[in-house]
# Entry
Amino acid sequence: GNSVTQMEGPVTLSEEAFLTINCTYTATGYPSLFWYVQYPGEGLQLLLKATKADDKGSNKGFEATYRKETTSFHLEKGSVQVSDSAVYFCALSDPLGATNKLIFGTGTLLAVQP
Amino acid sequence: GAVVSQHPSWVICKSGTSVKIECRSLDFQATTMFWYRQFPKQSLMLMATSNEGSKATYEQGVEKDKFLINHASLTLSTLTVTSAHPEDSSFYICSARVQGLSTEAFFGQGTRLTVV
# Structure
């Protein structure tokens, strides 16, 4: 079945450091891939997405490229800020599925220190 | 973006009682809503998919008589935890899909349920 594996946290970085959060997936067909962010006390927000191989999703300085050959969708940011501290979830959605439901990874807590 | 409001944000109830959680799409019509459960340090586990005007589709292992889902309108879905037990304590999150868009889903802020 479809599944998502992402690196365990917490990830602790200093401000302006480079961020990578790894995400790999297993899926039949050609899923869409997403990164969601959950700030403390809030719901999930879509950060970025990619719907086909080699697409690059980007938003707020974050980027992730859909790599079909390595079944990966790693999240990167060149210079993190304290305000980026949150839990990040990688997810996939099978567009051929009847309900197009999202399947999530376990989430990675990012803590950025000033 | 579209707004999904979930209420209450937190609730404490006694064992054996029932608790209702509401999920509303405030500025769009949602033909499909999803209910997730999140355990500490774990991922969101899909519990059920709710379609307006029809019965919910439950994931394997989720008791449909325990977790009652109603999706009576295009803007409201409810999850009722019946005869709650301490092991039902968890973080419950709903999401809604905008009608006509196949991939975008918007999430509520979640409900922290504690059963004592």
Remarks:
- The first strand of chain B starts at residue 4 and ends at 7.
- The mean pLDDT of chain B is 89.
- The CA atoms of residues 9 and 111 of chain B lie 4 Å apart.
